[in-house]
Write a structure and sequence with these properties.
This protein is α/β, with parallel strands linked by helices. Helices cover 40% and strands 14% of the residues. Helix 3 (55-69) runs parallel beside helix 4, helix 12 (358-366) packs parallel to helix 13 (390-396) and helix 13 (390-396) runs parallel beside helix 14.
């Protein structure tokens, strides 16, 4: 796993590296070398480097010097002369670079900059770094729109200029990069809020050859989960397996209004590996589910007048749930009073439990001012996995704003820290999904836009339930297991987009591609580990 840091932790890490004997001046040289190496992948002939007032601009000056020496024609556009750059480190490399063959343009007008950029086959954005937040000021409020209108290919240094590297928010205008070459470790803001629209491909230069020895000396905002981290969930089935040893799932879901959610979740659980999947659904929709899923036993539960779980449902569901390796509750269930009783009853059982969709909304209604204020509602010995999207997560914490990755992580941590159990995980779903446990935040591979379709969350919940069931609760790190399920779900999105087109994917398409997605995860893990695998499936 690769750490993701806050901007403050990156600064702390730079201080640690300096105490270990590598100065910030040396780090700037290494950063410039890394940017130049990334730039050379495009074999540019005409390069324009846009620099600012700080050390981010210094990285750009170093890269300009190296690229000029390696045969490119490089022009540096700077708001002030090299000797007037405020940052001492950046001023030193600016003076050095300007004394060589690099062309320097000081304070170009809009038209001059436009002409300069239009003649370049590569632009390096080294204007604003990780210290930026708020609104742009001249000349950069002119430079950045001109860059976006004119440049054909852009590499941003550390962070696209105009983006808040802590929050991912763009308040004004921001460079739209084709590639962002970040330094030491990715910043959390590069994955949050507006960032995915601007970052492009993200690459990271570690800059320090002993980084692995010191990076754990600072807190990690999150960690990127790679396919190789998931190999423990990719073991083949033993020859002696049977349907019960493969694990059993009870899907407590559905209503007369939303029977399809139960169907999708149950089928996804089976595709994900569970050997025995059953559905407990209100009797108002039980026969419909039976007809749609002939291989899945359906237990008819007493319903209310609107076709949701009724007053007698709690006892029946809870007695049934005790027989299964994993219970998934929530898809299409509604928040009727009987449903709320079912949720509270399941929380009291000693069985791995996944609460999704309406089960989360029921839990929110059972709490006062947020579930983190009443942790006794969801504190339990058995594993509990919550799978809220942003609106559901906001309700869980008393309607506090949750609208991006950063606020989602904060809200999820409130939930898990209130209980303090290693067996509680929040899968905070979004464009970038965070899997939050009491000690760490994991970020598995994000899926494509094709996953933004009704029912996709039901499929993810089913994949997660099927995966949990196969382990029979023998899991050391529940965050990693949940990350595996999210990765499989992401790969179903890629596979479905390839099959049907990104705009045409519907949730049911994902289910039949779960097996292919699992194989894609395995192939990716093999490549990362240097093991022979089928590389033709991606």
């Amino acid at each position: 796993m690769k750490p993701i840091l806050s901007t403050e932790e990156v600064r702390r890490l730079e201080d640690i590296i300096e105490r270990e004997g590598t100065s910030k001046a040396e780090l700037m040289e290494h950063a410039g070398e890394f940017v130049a190496a990334v730039a050379q992948e495009y074999d540019p002939k005409e390069v324009v480097v846009l620099t600012g007032f700080g050390n981010n601009g210094g990285d750009g000056w170093v890269a300009a010097d190296i690229l000029q020496q390696r045969g490119a024609h490089v022009t540096v556009a700077t708001p002030v002369g090299p000797s007037e750059v405020p940052s001492a480190l950046a001023r030193h490399v600016a003076r050095r670079t300007s004394g060589r063959d690099v062309e320097v343009v000081v304070g170009p007008s809009r038209d001059e900059l436009s002409d300069l950029l239009s003649g370049a086959d590569l632009v390096i954005d080294a204007i604003l770094g990780t210290g930026f937040h708020g609104q742009l000021r001249p000349p950069f409020s002119i430079w950045i729109p001109t860059l976006n209108e004119t440049a054909t290919r852009v590499i941003s240094v550390d962070v696209p200029s105009g983006l808040d590297s802590e929050t991912g928010v763009v308040e004004d205008c921001c460079v739209r990069a084709d590639k962002t070459a970040t330094m030491i470790a990715p910043k959390i803001g590069l994955y949050s809020a507006d960032a995915p629209q601007y970052v492009g491909e993200l690459v990271c230069g570690e800059l320090y050859d002993k980084l692995d020895e010191v990076i754990d000396d600072v807190d990690h905002a999150a960690e990127i989960v790679e396919a190789a981290d998931l190999v423990e969930f990719l073991e083949p089935l033993p020859a002696t397996v049977n349907k019960y040893s493969r694990g059993s799932v009870l899907v407590v879901a559905g209503s007369a209004r939303y029977p399809g959610a139960a169907m999708m979740a149950a089928k996804a659980a089976a595709r994900a590996g569970a050997g025995y999947v059953a559905v407990a659904a209100p009797d108002a929709c039980a026969n419909l589910i039976r007809m749609a899923l002939p291989s899945v036993p359906v237990i008819a539960i007493p319903s209310d007048s609107r076709g949701s779980f009724g007053a007698a449902a709690r006892q029946v569901v809870c007695e049934t749930a005790k027989k299964y390796d994993c219970v998934l509750c929530g898809p299409g269930m509604t928040t009727a009073s009987g449903c709320m009783q079912v949720v509270s009853g399941l929380l009291e059982l000693d069985v791995p439990l996944i609460l999704d969709a309406d089960a989360l909304n029921c839990l929110s209604r059972l709490a006062i001012d947020g579930i983190d204020k009443t942790p006794e509602l969801y504190r339990r010995e058995a594993p509990l996995i919550l799978t809220p999207h942003h609106r559901e997560l906001s309700r869980l914490v008393g309607d506090l704003p949750v609208d991006d990755l950063g606020t989602a992580i904060d809200a999820a941590q409130r939930v898990v820290w209130a209980v303090g159990s290693d067996n509680l995980v929040v899968v905070a779903k979004g464009a970038t999904t965070a899997v939050v446990g009491v000690e760490r935040v994991l970020m598995p591979m994000s899926g494509p836009a094709s996953l933004a379709t009704a029912g996709s969350g039901d499929v993810l919940a089913g994949i997660l339930a099927g995966t949990v069931a196969t382990t029979h609760g023998e899991v050391e790190r529940w965050e990693l297991l949940a990350s595996y399920a999210v990765a499989v779900h992401s790969y179903t999105g890629f596979a479905a987009a390839a099959e049907y087109g990104e705009r045409s994917v519907i949730a049911t398409d994902l289910i039949d591609l779960i097996g292919e997605a699992i194989q894609l995860v395995e192939n990716a893990a093999c490549r990362e580990l240097g093991i022979s695998g089928d590389e033709g499936d991606e």
